[in-house]
Amino acid sequence: MLASGRVANAPLNGLWTMKVLVVEDDATAADLLRKGLSSFGYEVDIAFNGRQGLVMAQEHDYALWLIDVMLPELDGLSLLKRLRQDDYHTPALILSARGEVDDRVAGLRSGGDDYLVKPYAFSELQARIEALLRRAQGSDVAALTTLEAADLRLDLLKRSVSRGGQEITLKPREFRLLEYLVRHADQVVTRTMLLENVWDLYFDPQTNVVDVHISRLRFKIDKQFATPLLHTVRGSGYVLRTTG
Amino acid sequence: MTWLTAPGRLMLGLLLFYTIGSLLIFGYLGLQLSDMSRRQIDQSLRSQENLFILQQDRTGLAGLRRSIEDELAADGRADLGYRVLDGTGRVVFEDGDLKLPPGLKARGAIQALSVVSPQGTALDARVLDFRLGGMTVFAARSSLDAQALKDSFFRVFVRVEGLVVLLGVTMSILVAHRFHARIEAFNRLARKIVKSGDLSSRMPVQGADEFATLALNVNAMLDRIDRLMQGVRQVSDNIAHDLRSPLTRLRADVEVALQQDDPATARATLERVLDELSGMQMTFNSLLSLGQAEAGGMRIKRTMLDLSAFLAEMVELYAYSAEERGLALESNIEEGLTIGGDRQLMAQVLSNLFDNALKYVPNGGRVRLSAGRRLHSVELVLEDNGPGIPPDMREKIFDRFTRVDPSRTLSGTGLGLALVRAFTELHGGSVTVGDSVLGGAAFVIVLPAPHLAGA
């Protein structure tokens, strides 16, 4: 599904810079976000309260909104609800100091596409932004019955996997793990993203459980093949690369 | 002004209530009394009528006169008066102390009239008239006795009422004063604590009344607050201590890197700094979760959780990691176990217990998760053949920052088991640790499951 080869960490649509709106009332945090996102090639606008955020989101065309929950004048969730009611479909990532599952549910219900709890690692934020931007671009994923990445082929109906025509036997959880990686091929996927999406767990265990599952999966899909697909990105997570 | 305090106002209110009530009762009694005396008078008039009729029948007018004289002579009564008219309405004779008004008309019934006493004053009287052998007889009787009774009744009432009000006011002031003094003692204590922040003061306990109970409860509350405060102080001391070590390491690391001025060292240092910071963040997050869970600020999202399937998932999640550490992870989970619970919180409970087991059980060891139904509950046991927990540590181990062996350099926040207990208790369950048949520690979690009938 992602045929063109792009470097995983660079923003998409390399011809022009992608504009991101950050709605965050803490000036220091906003400044750090601006610096961090700019260094990855995004153009960053900052709104310091909900009302300002609403105006800016309505007036400019952004590729992504980063919205803090606790905001003066208009809180993040209400802001997002207003925008969604007015038919704005820009992907939104909610940043929150609260990490309970209920808050997450409330965030997603208000129209958020993903939810990240503060304090977060910057690599985590970056990976999630990438994932959201990709998702916004390829909107025809829902109807697929097969997924392909390089010479890897997943049959979603039969729950079977083959690489280069050779059948690979996976356990159900391994299949879900691989499916998620393939759906996010060429993007960095963090351990937290995997725990949330493959295991439905919203906390990080101390034991490196994800790493061990990845290495088992790697053994099954890469061992007998010349080009490895599954790569570790130090300090961030993993990436399934479709191009050598 | 002490009598206007709450107890003073209460006493006055009661007094007012009593006064109004007694006025009503006395008024009612007074009415009953005059009604009764009127009926008595009427009855005596009627019996006189009968008597006179009988007497006259035998002896005519002379007999009537004698009857009337007898009547008047009997115990020298001054409250009677008689008048007899002949057929033409002329007065035949009058007798008795009461003077009936002139020109009195016969009614054939008892009427209330004003008559004149021997002293010349007006008196209320009841007058009966009846016909007797062509004559008309008027018999009058005043309610003098009843009047006297009513008067003395009223005097008694006024005296009693006055005395009661006087006593009541005095009592009000005394009681209010006494209550105020005892309440003021509590106020003094509260003000003292507010002012100084010193929680060591206590109420003196006197007697065995409600104030004594209140004093006991206030003291017990202060004891508890004092213990909690000490706990909080202990915890913040621990936090400071737990953060000082990584901060010291960070500082030294950064200082060395700055001196060396070598990009490779700088990068390696930054990576270590990031690791240390992640650890500190984890400590803070766990502390926040703990604080929320213990203060009841955490909303627990209960759904019907298929515990058997969920536990199997957790075992699956940890199986490879256990294997990597050379541990055999076994499971013995009964089918069909369900609880009302929060999946995320239960996952953290299991995860923390697994993390511990993987950390402390040496290579080649065994870890086993069992789950089975008990009466209206589910019991989870995670046991191992590791070093176990010494008996004197078995309660303490669930406190914040407790580590079985402080010299152990294994990483961790020291908060994992505290979270296990807090989250288990949020589910209405309990967690204990004991000896395992495998030779190590056995963590036993009992969760309520009222819908399960038990084994």
Mean pLDDT of chain A: 86
Query: Termini of chain B, distance in Å?
Result: 70 Å
Residues in β-strands, percent of chain A? 15-25%
What kind of oligomer do you see?
Answer: heterodimer
Whole-number radius of gyration of chain A? 19 Å
Helix amount of chain A: 25-40%
Compute the average pLDDT of chain B. Answer: 85
Label the CATH architecture of the largest domain in chain A.
3-Layer(aba) Sandwich
Briefly note the structural class of the backbone of chain A: alpha/beta
Termini distance of chain A?
Answer: 17 Å
Radius of gyration of chain B: 50 Å
Describe the biggest sheet of chain B?
A: 5 strands, antiparallel
Shape of chain A: elongated
**CATH fold descriptor of the largest domain in chain A:** Rossmann fold
Concise synopsis of the structure shown:
With 244 residues, chain A is α/β, with parallel strands linked by helices. Helix content of chain A is 38%, strand content 21%. Chain A has eight helices and twelve strands.
Description:
The complex is a heterodimer of chains A (244) and B (455). Chain A is an alpha/beta fold. Helices cover 38% and strands 21% of the residues of chain A. Chain A contains 8 helices and 12 strands. Chain A has helices spanning 27-39, 50-59, 76-85, 101-109, 122-137, 172-183, 191-198, 209-222; strands spanning 18-23, 42-47, 64-68, 92-96, 114-117, 146-149, 152-155, 160-163, 166-168, 189-190, 230-233, 237-240. In chain A, the strands form 3 sheets. In chain A, strands 2-1-3-4-5 form a 5-stranded parallel beta sheet, sandwiched between helices. In chain A, strands 6-7-8-9 form a 4-stranded antiparallel beta sheet, with helices on one face. In chain A, helix 2 packs parallel to helix 3. The relative contact order of chain A is 0.12. Chain B has 455 residues and is α+β, with helices and mostly antiparallel strands. Chain B has 3 domains: 2-149, Beta-Lactamase (2-Layer Sandwich), CATH 3.30.450; 210-294, Orthogonal Bundle (Helix Hairpins); 303-448, Histidine kinase-like ATPase, C-terminal domain (Heat Shock Protein 90, 2-Layer Sandwich), CATH 3.30.565. Chain B has helices spanning 6-73, 144-196, 210-260, 263-294, 307-324, 343-360, 416-426; strands at residues 80-85, 91-96, 111-116, 122-132, 135-142, 303-306, 328-333, 338-341, 366-374, 377-384, 430-435, 441-448. In chain B, the strands form 3 sheets. Chain B has a 5-stranded antiparallel beta sheet with strand order 2-1-5-4-3, covered by helices on one side. In chain B, strand 1 and strand 2 form a beta hairpin. In chain B, helix 1 (6-73) packs antiparallel against helix 2 (144-196), helix 3 (210-260) runs antiparallel to helix 4 (263-294) and helix 6 packs antiparallel against helix 7 (416-426). The radius of gyration of chain B is 50 Å and the shape is rod-shaped. Chain B starts with 5 loop residues before the first helix and ends in a 7-residue tail after the last strand. The A-B interface holds A 99-102, 119, 121, 173, 199-209, 212-213, 216, 235 and B 271, 274, 278, 281-282, 285, 298-299, 301, 313, 316-318, 320-321, 324, 342-344, 347-348, 351-352, 354-355, 358-359, 411-412, 416.
